[in-house]
Amino acid sequence: MSITDKDVQHVAKLARLNLTPEEEQMFTGQLNAILQYAEKLKELDTEGVEPTTHVLHLSNVMRDDEVRESLPIEKVLLNAPDEEDDQIKVPAVLE
């Protein structure tokens, strides 16, 4: 499979990019080089290789859920744009 100038023009149009003819040529060459490199991967013997979702073997990377003291309400409300009755007041989103 190879990329043509017409393919690059189509993608540029979809992305609303105004490319010069020189840029179209450059991107056509670059995209074809990427595809040629990807074709080399087909030569690899992947028999017996397990599919992976991540390059590292991760199990559970979350911290333990520990009960701890919350911030005092006065300190929390210092960052609020507006407050009412010890609660953060926000604009209504429904009429």
TrEMBL record:
Reactions the enzyme catalyzes: L-aspartyl-tRNA(Asn) + L-glutamine + ATP + H2O = L-asparaginyl-tRNA(Asn) + L-glutamate + ADP + phosphate + 2 H(+); L-glutamyl-tRNA(Gln) + L-glutamine + ATP + H2O = L-glutaminyl-tRNA(Gln) + L-glutamate + ADP + phosphate + H(+)
Q: Which Pfam families match?
A: GatC
Name of the featured protein: Aspartyl/glutamyl-tRNA(Asn/Gln) amidotransferase subunit C
Q: What InterPro entries does this protein map onto?
A: Asp/Glu-ADT_sf_sub_c, GatC
Give the highest taxon in the source lineage. Answer: Bacteria
Q: Which Gene3D superfamilies match?
A: Glu-tRNAGln amidotransferase C subunit, N-terminal domain
Q: Which NCBIfam families match?
A: gatC (TIGR00135)
State which Enzyme Commission number(s) the record gives.
Answer: 6.3.5.-
Would the keyword Ligase be found if you checked this record's keyword annotation? yes
Q: What does this protein do?
A: Allows the formation of correctly charged Asn-tRNA(Asn) or Gln-tRNA(Gln) through the transamidation of misacylated Asp-tRNA(Asn) or Glu-tRNA(Gln) in organisms which lack either or both of asparaginyl-tRNA or glutaminyl-tRNA synthetases. The reaction takes place in the presence of glutamine and ATP through an activated phospho-Asp-tRNA(Asn) or phospho-Glu-tRNA(Gln).
Q: Which UniProt keywords apply?
A: ATP-binding, Ligase, Nucleotide-binding, Protein biosynthesis, Transferase
Record-linked SUPFAM superfamilies: Glu-tRNAGln amidotransferase C subunit
Family in the record:
Belongs to the GatC family.
Please name the HAMAP family in this protein's record: GatC
Q: Where is the signal peptide?
A: none
Q: Which organism is it from?
A: Paenibacillus glucanolyticus
